[in-house]
Write a structure and sequence with these properties.
With about 325 residues, the protein is mainly α. About 70% of the residues lie in helices and about 0% in strands. It has a domain of about 230 residues. Helix 6 runs antiparallel to helix 11, helix 10 runs antiparallel to helix 11 and helix 10 packs across helix 12.
């Protein structure tokens, strides 16, 4: 009996050793990826983007392009890490897998706009005095912008309002496509590279929390300058950074789940593109654009504006934790 136990222990040792080696390799790759991503992102945004946004008269086109360029950094760092560690493009999760997965593609494509709209409606139900069907605040911004154009290029306000409404409706269908490339830049890094590595070294719920906090802190330079929550709110910028981490956990759970279910980061890219394109929908109809309700809504990064996403994320975690599905499963 003693000889049998010794033999069994010797047989188990290589398996345990192999698992520990794989875990160690994944941790090393995670740290390399995060080191590259945060170093390059923070350097770029503090040294390049911040000066553009802080200019006395910021160039809006240049500001938009510079912030959009930052979205490609996670994917570039994932590629750099893959090449540097010799992993290559093995298990890159960058190709669509439609067979048996169309329900996830459709759910993310149309579900994100539905939850954005739901959150905005809930916000205005709670705060009816903040609802403005005439979009007065938005029209004033556009009117001021139009004043700088030649007379023959100006558009009547009523026509402009109609254009905005049509664009919002069309955005439901086209936002995932229009925003595909920059969102690929983020999602191939976060969901296509970091997520599969993290699930091999951490239990599900801690993994989702840590993954979301990492994503939230990656937004820190832009949150500090007011990109996500504006300026002038209580506890600025720390409460904004904390709130961004919370909602990155929420959105990250949803995007991670569809990635795991389809073994592809493409659905996450589509969902991210839809979210970015439609997140400001509620702001169009809001009288209050100050910091008073910034953590409530009407955008999805407010507690009420994001209520649908929060409930969805909780339900996903409960189901996911029960099903135990992982990226490595076929």
């Amino acid at each position: 009996m003693e000889n049998y136990n010794e033999s069994q222990q010797n047989e188990n040792q290589p398996i345990e050793s192999s698992n520990e080696d794989e875990k160690s390799i994944n941790i090393q790759r995670i740290l390399i990826f995060l080191g590259f991503t945060f170093l390059i992102t923070y350097a770029y945004e503090f040294l390049v983007v911040h000066p553009i946004l802080k200019a006395e008269t910021p160039n809006q086109v240049l500001a938009t392009l510079s912030m959009g360029a930052a979205m490609f950094i996670p994917a570039l760092c994932a590629l750099l890490t893959r090449l540097m560690t010799g992993e290559g493009l093995k298990n890159s999760y960058m190709w669509p897998r439609f067979k048996g997965n169309m329900k996830y593609y459709l759910a993310i494509w149309f579900g994100i706009p539905a939850l954005v709209l739901l959150g905005a409606v809930l916000f205005f139900i709670v705060f009816p005095d903040k609802f403005d069907p005439n979009m007065t605040a938005q029209m004033k911004i556009l009117k001021d912008a139009m004043a700088a154009l030649p007379q023959n290029q100006q558009v009547p306000m009523e026509q402009l309002k109609l254009i905005i409404l049509i664009q919002s409706i069309v955005g439901v269908l086209l936002a995932p496509v229009i925003n595909f490339l920059p969102c690929f830049g983020e999602e191939w890094g976060w969901r296509g590279y970091l997520l599969p590595k993290m699930e091999k070294v951490m239990p599900l719920i801690p993994m989702l929390l840590v993954n979301g906090v990492i994503w939230g802190l990656w937004h820190l330079p832009l949150t500090m300058i007011g990109h996500n929550y504006g300026t002038g709110y209580f506890g600025e910028p720390f409460t904004g950074i904390l709130a961004m981490c919370v909602f990155c956990i929420v959105f990250g759970i949803i995007f991670s789940y569809v990635t795991v279910r389809t073994k592809s980061c493409i659905p996450a890219i589509l969902g991210h593109g839809s979210l970015n394109g439609l997140a400001a929908l509620g702001v169009l109809f809001s009288k209050d654009t100050t910091a008073n309700t910034v953590f409530l809504g009407p955008t999805p990064v407010g507690v009420i504006g994001g209520a649908g996403f929060i409930v969805c994320a909780i339900l996903i975690v409960a189901f996911w934790n029960k099903s135990k599905v992982t990226m490595s499963e076929s």
